[in-house]
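quick one, 449 residues, struct below
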Amino acid sequence: MDAYKSKVEEIQENVEYAGKEAAEKLDLIGKSILCAARDELYFSMRFMDVALSSFAYQMDSRVSLFGTDGSCIYFHPQQLGGLYRENRILVNRGYLHMVLHCVFRHMLKRHTDARYWNLSCDIAAEHIIDGLDLRPVRFSRSLLRREIYRKLEGTKKVLHAERICRCLLGWELAEKELVRLEEEFCVDDHRFWERTEPDRKRDEELNRRWSRIDERMETDLETFSRDAARQSGSFLGILKVENTQKQDYRELLRRFAVYREEMTADLDTFDYGYYSYGMSLYGNMPLIEPLETREVKKITDFVVVIDTSLSCSGEITRKFLEETYSVLSDSGSFFQKVNIHILQCDEKVHADVKITSREELEAYMEHFELYGEGGTDFRPAFVHVEELLGRGEFDSLKGLVYFTDGYGIYPEKMPPFRTVFVFPGEEYSDVDVPAWAAKLVWKEKDSWT
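---
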């Protein structure tokens, strides 16, 4: 009996050893396949050297083929080996597909409709890969894929994931159509994007890491790798859009603030010691009282110009004005008495509404109506504001915000006030503004976080 038991234990140990040895071999083969794909991509895309080499590799039988969380690529050994035997170009494309998810931080962004968001990220990555004129990823496009690209490219905008998601939601796809698109474009497993409780510290570190990588890639493509940039299709354009500074609107407006006294108790300079001593000594007579005014830094004079040309979406413009209204209504940012001019302009100034109080601002938003829809010329708005300055309309105008898609005729001369051209994030295409102006991308706070 003891001999039989020993024999069984020996067989079990041999089976476990054989299984462990087989798993190690599968792990080694899978990692070798991924390394081969990385190296082949590197020789054609040297500007992506750091991005391609930024992953650890880990075998995981739960994953469907492969997937990434931004730090590691997880792979199913049998499925990866099968795909490599079928066509190694598909492995190359899958590897690059996951790298692009990380470059554009798709796994760190959230949308209320996760299914559409995941599909949009896959379409965005595949659209870039299909636009590359490179042998390691060259593969014939299906009829469905060509048709989807044709419809999306009809918007004549940079096709990043957010814009693609808006398009898909606008198409109101039937379940059958949605499934077809998922079968066509889904390449990797997104299970590693899903977290019940977000790890803020990890996400911030991951975002900083990939931000440094894609900023380096953009610089490389614009300088040393210009030939590669010509072969990269829409990749450089999308990279520029992602790297363009996106800033909170409230932070932007703080640049235009000035110091001025306001009727309010200045508790910062108030000495509670003398106050308490006087109250304890005389009962109801403090030795010191707070000042009735205080010097604060807020906005008093301000100009908002809305581009009402046909190239700007009316819906996005309204949402921008609604957020502007929300910020302007905040007494913590503006003085009680303000001098705000809201202009509507395409190739000429159609409206100039002066706002001096919260009540006037509320009335303006309640009866707001867009005028114009002609061509785009930025010069008339600047001429109009300078005429207002000449007439003494402003006491201390610090800045002008111009909400536009950026396509138009810019003034050649620098105006006597700060200017920021604000671009709608979902409609933005990379454009150059004059050196004297700042360029920021505004992103409405709706579905994405």
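The longest helix spans residues 2-44.
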